[in-house]
Every structure is written in structure tokens, then in C-alpha cells.
Amino acid sequence: MKRKTDILVLGNGAAGSSAAFAAKKADPSLSVLVLSKENEPVYSAPALPDLLSGELTREKVLVRTWEEYEQDGIEVLCAEAAAIDPGTRTVTLADGDEIAYRDLILAAGSQPIQLRKMQGTSLPGNFVMKTMADIEAIASYSGKSAVVVGSGAIGIEGSMALKARGFERVTMVEALDWLSPKSLDKETSDQLKKALESFGVEVLTGEAVQAVLGEKKAEGVVTSKRTIPCDLVLWGIGMRPDVQLAMEAGIALGETGGILVDEFMRTSDPHIYACGDCAQSTDLLTGQPALHLFWEPAQRGGFAAGANAAGQEKIFQPSAAVFLTNKGGLSILALGKTEEQLAEDPYVLQEEKDGVFRRLLFEDGRLAGVQMLGTLQDADLFFAHIRKNAQRRKDAWDLTQPVPDLERVSVKEAIWYLRKQRRNAFVK
Amino acid sequence: MKRLVFDPARCSLCGACLAACSAVKKGRIDLVQSRIRIETAGSRKPLRAAVCAHCEEPACVTACMRGIIDKGADGLVTRRWEECFRCAACLVSCPVGAVLEDTDRKAFIACDLCGKAESGEDPLCVRVCLSGALRFEEETAASADLRSSYALQMFAEQPAAPTDPTDGQWEEIARMIAEECGSPVTVKELKSAQEQLRRDAEEGM
Ligand SMILES: Cc1cc2nc3c(=O)[nH]c(=O)nc-3n(C[C@H](O)[C@H](O)[C@H](O)COP(=O)(O)OP(=O)(O)OC[C@H]3O[C@@H](n4cnc5c(N)ncnc54)[C@H](O)[C@@H]3O)c2cc1C
Ligand code: SF4
């Protein structure tokens, strides 16, 4: 039998669940059905490292309970979608059942990148960290030593969590020259490395993992420089948008590989919307198409997609890449450009004092990026300046005048200057 | 809905509002735990107040990685802080810098207007601000517009020379705080908080 629904949401993560609740709120008369290939209500993926470390319980990771879905009249079907037919407006499930929709919201999220061709990567003991089930799989696997591949947020938080969980030896391996090079400069990475080591995580950079050793299960990792024995390998080498079904259905993708959407989250098909990790967004700072696989745009994009699909116009504003981790006594924040990306007249102010590291990157005397460890203070100030500088808006709030005498000021004085400048921007 | 409005031209940096806030919320005078901050830059001159503006489209609500911040129909932004896992996304996304970590609750929090949004009565921080720098006012169309696009508040109106509380006024402030919190507060404590605030303003980050 073919089921029918007004709004069908494919995916129950941050984006899909937000879309479902927003659609129902915008028009309670609509039937809203959510498809999920997982068995939990929406949970916080960013909290999964805390579940792994043992800091949080399963309940404390959930964002909503099943009761809340029910209260709002949202139906959920824990089943996997296998195909979309935009012509007949039908989604076919893996078990063959069909669901007819009026409007479809794609929120299938992203998938961890896996190197299936590399030797040993399909042995037991290879893990990723994407879903609650992944964490449960790691938790029920016995081991005392781990190699974490990759040094992005997942690699960093995964290493810290494994250590906190009681692993005796945790080694983070990064193929590139320093940690999180897309977000951090070498100097910041050096500080981060020290911080990670102080938590007992070993850090190796400039070393590519070439194979996983073992007969029946993972027993070690071979890098370009050495062999590291270990019980468990955690892969944190990136995520890519899950666009398989959309692609097969002929829905247009953007240049970044995410589903192409307009500001109302509409795809190339008039009855299909997309939001979250699977969709392409626009970078707030560069104005360019971007893949922002972050919680904030997923949740906000979901709200927008849901409202629009239900007939209430809501624009999705561009999003920003915010590199943030604040866990287990380690805080890192990076916003805006790295040194390599600085254009005209670059200048870097940096200071390390009492466990606090700040690196302010200027271009043409204007703040273009910031990287800090051990503090989150003035995040609002930095973000305001970086944003205004990127947009170079010559409006009443123009904050883009240069900081004078960069060569002569300390980080503290530069921050004072930025504060005054923001204040002055508000006084006529 | 009324909101906190701050006029830096009237503020003498006496610190009474910060003391009152921490006394109410923490049961002690603890400036860094105050939910209202006065931003300065190397001098005693106040630049602006950082306090939750209960934004029309709050950045913290969509940033929150556990979905525990809500914008109510009454306009108030509320937090189920017991569920906070301290990801700090609200702090980083708030354009005002209004979010802080409550070190006892182990949660990120912001000003909740002490439950006065509905009645419109002045909260304690406003009552102890005898210079009239901090006020609880109905928003104007202009301020609403400002808030939704960029949540900085407060504009200097008629410049008035900021004056410190007199000794008699300090007594009055101490009495008001003690009455609200049900525990004694001395003028000496308040004055030492003021000194610390001024030192931080001149030398601190
Ligand atoms: C460990 C970890 C830490 C993170 N930390 C941060 C952080 O600190 N800050 C930050 O901003 N972001 C962080 N992220 C990223 C953030 O969690 C994601 O950007 C966000 O969850 C994306 O939400 P989404 O709903 O678009 O996608 P997903 O969360 O991927 O959800 C997709 C949903 O669709 C379902 N689905 C997919 N295909 C099908 C199908 N065919 N049929 C049925 N259901 C399907 C999936 O089961 C899932 O429920 C982290 C992610 C992880 C994994
Ligand atoms: S001022 Fe900050 S904390 Fe308050 S509602 Fe706005 S974004 Fe949220």
C-alpha cells in the first residue's frame, strides 16, 4: 500500500528534525512524516565525544524525545529511503514500501570519508565517529591503545575522549604538516599540540597512514615513518555530504558537491527542498558557495526548509565556518582567514600568557581572522570585525578602518582598540 | 516587552549592577559571574553593556547544539541550563557577548531579566543603578530594528556627568541588595568590588 503525506522529511538529524517541527508549526493542518535509518530521536552529534568519554549518558545527548515528536503530531518511520522519484513524487523505502509526498525535504546529512581500498581498513577495530551507533560500537570493543587518524575537530575531540575513557595510549596521526591546517596556522597548531600532549595524547604530524595491520582484527597502523601498534583505529579524515539519492533522482548539485539550493532551500525540483550537511550553503565571509557541515546551519536551515515547504516564506542567510571545541578542559576557537589566506598587507599579532593563546590576523590593518586557545573571550567582538572586514561594508556601522600602529601594539591594546571602534561605530 | 537599556554616558562604573546581579544569582558578590558586563578598553570609560537582548531571531537558539535554548511567545529567551553540555556555541555566536559560564551550575547562561519581563517591574540591577545608566524600558521601533540586525543596545542621550553613589546611596544600595537576597551585604564589600572593577577596566583584557 502506498502511504501519503503532505511533507516527507528524509533524515532525522539536526536539519531534518528542525524541518519537521518547523513545518508542523507553520501549518499544523499538514501531515509531516520523518524517515530515519537510525533508531534514536534526534541527538546532538557534537555531544558524541562526551558520550564516548563517559562524561554524558545516552539521555543527555538527545535533543528531543519521542514524546515531543508525538506531542507535535510528527510521525517518524525508522526506515531507510532507497530511491526518490520526483516525477510521481514518491519515495521508495529499502523494504520496497512507497510513500507519496506533496513536498519532500532532503536532510540526509553527511557520511564519514572511509578509505576502503587501503589495506586493513575493513578489519574489526576500524571505527568512525558519526552516529550514536558508532560510539556504542567503540564502547563495546575492548582495547587499551588507539590511533586516531586526522586532526580536525573529530580527530581532536575523539583523541581526548578516548584518553578520558581510559585508553592508555592514544596517538593522533596527521598527514599534513600541522594540525587542522584548514582552520589553524602552524603557530596555533604548535600550541594545540602542546595542549593535547599535556592531556596525554601523542601527536604525529607530516605522517600519512598507509595501512592497517592485523589478521583478524586491527593490530597496528603503518605510517610513512613508523609502525604503531594499537587495538583500535578511529578515522576522522572528514565528512562528505550524502547526496546519493538526490543525484540518482536528477536533482542538481552545486560546485562543492552539496545539493544546490536557493535562499528558500528549494532544490532544482519545485517540490523538493534540502537542508543541513547534504546541502550547499553560502559562506558569510566570502560570499562563495561552501560546504558548511556544522550544527548551526543545519538547524537553522532545517527551520527555514520546514517553514518554506509548509508555505511560509523564510530566507536562509549565509553561514560561517566556526572552528570551535570546548571539551575536557581544552578550548579552541578559530574564525575567519588563516595566515595563508590573508590578502593585502598581512600582519599577525600573537601572544601566549598564563595558558591563554591568542593570534589575531590582520589584513590591511583590519581584523580578518582569529585563533585562540584557552579562552573564548571577545568572540563576539572578533566575529563582528571579521565579518565587517570581509564584507567591507561602508555603512553606518563601518568597522573596517585599520588599527593604527599594529607594529607597536600588544594583543591587549589591539583588543581595546577593536572595542572602541565597535563602540564608535554606534555613536553618530 | 521591556528590555535592559544602558547609557554609557551616565555610568560611573560603580559596579552596583554587577554586584547586585551576582548577589541575586550566585548568593555572593562575584563580578565575573555577573550576567551583565560593562565593556571597557583600558580606562574607566564604559563603552557598552553586554547583557542578553532577548533577540528577535536569537543566534544562540540556532547555534545551541542541544536545542535547549528557546525563544518563547512572550519574547523571552530561556535556557534549560541543566541540560547544557558546555559546547560554548551560544557564547561564540551571541553578537552581544551576553553569554557566560556559570561555574557552579557548570552551564552557559545569560540574563533572564529575573522574571520581571511580564510584570515590567524594575529588576534589582536597575534599582541599584542610581545614576540612571541602566534602565528597564519598553523598546522603541528603532531599538527593535537595531536589535534584530545587530543586538547592541544603548545610546547616549543627553550627556550627563557620571557621578558615583554618595555614602548614603551606598548604604541604600547595600540595603536593597540585602533585602532581595535575604543575606547581609556591606558597603565595604560593594566598594571593594567597585575598586576591582575599575582596576580591571584600566589594566585587564
Ligand atoms: C562527532 C561529531 C562532532 C561534531 N562536532 C561539531 C561541532 O563541534 N560543531 C559543529 O558545528 N558541528 C559539529 N559536528 C557536525 C554536526 O553535527 C553536523 O553538521 C550536523 O549534525 C548535521 O546535521 P544533518 O541533520 O544535516 O545531518 P546528519 O546529522 O548527518 O543527519 C542525517 C540523518 O539522515 C538520516 N539518513 C541519511 N540517509 C538516509 C536514508 N537514505 N534514509 C533514511 N534516513 C537517512 C541519518 O540516519 C541521519 O539521521 C559534529 C559531527 C560529529 C559526527
Ligand atoms: S543577546 Fe545573545 S544570548 Fe541573548 S538572545 Fe541574543 S544571541 Fe541569545
Brief overview:
The complex is a heterodimer of chains A (about 425) and B (about 200). Chain A is α/β, with parallel strands linked by helices and about 425 residues long.
What overall geometry of chain B do the principal axes of the alpha carbons give? globular
Helical fraction of chain A equals: 10-25%
Number of helix segments of chain A?
Answer: 10
State the CATH class of the largest domain in chain B: Alpha Beta
CATH architecture of the largest domain in chain B: 2-Layer Sandwich
Mean pLDDT of chain B: 90
Oligomer: heterodimer
Low-confidence regions of chain B? 145-158
Assign an overall shape of chain A.
globular
Summarize the topology.
The complex is a heterodimer of chains A (428) and B (205).
Chain A: E1 2-10, H1 14-26, E2 32-35, H2 48-53, H3 66-71, E3 74-77, E4 81-85, E5 90-93, E6 98-106, E7 110-112, E8 126-128, H4 132-139, E9 145-149, H5 153-165, E10 169-174, H6 186-198, E11 201-205, E12 209-213, E13 220-223, E14 227-229, E15 232-235, E16 239-241, H7 244-248, E17 272-274, E18 281-282, E19 289-290, H8 295-309, E20 323-327, E21 330-336, E22 346-353, E23 356-363, E24 366-373, H9 379-391, H10 411-424
Parallel strand pairs in A: 1-2, 1-6, 2-3, 6-17, 8-15, 9-10, 9-15, 10-11
Antiparallel strand pairs in A: 4-5, 5-6, 7-16, 12-13, 13-14, 18-19, 20-21, 21-24, 22-23, 23-24
Helix pairs in contact in A: 1-8
Chain B: E1 2-6, H1 16-26, E2 37-39, E3 48-50, H2 59-63, E4 69-71, E5 77-79, H3 89-93, E6 100-102, E7 107-109, H4 124-127, E8 134-138, H5 141-149, H6 167-181, H7 187-203
Antiparallel strand pairs in B: 1-8, 2-3, 4-5, 6-7
Helix pairs in contact in B: 1-6
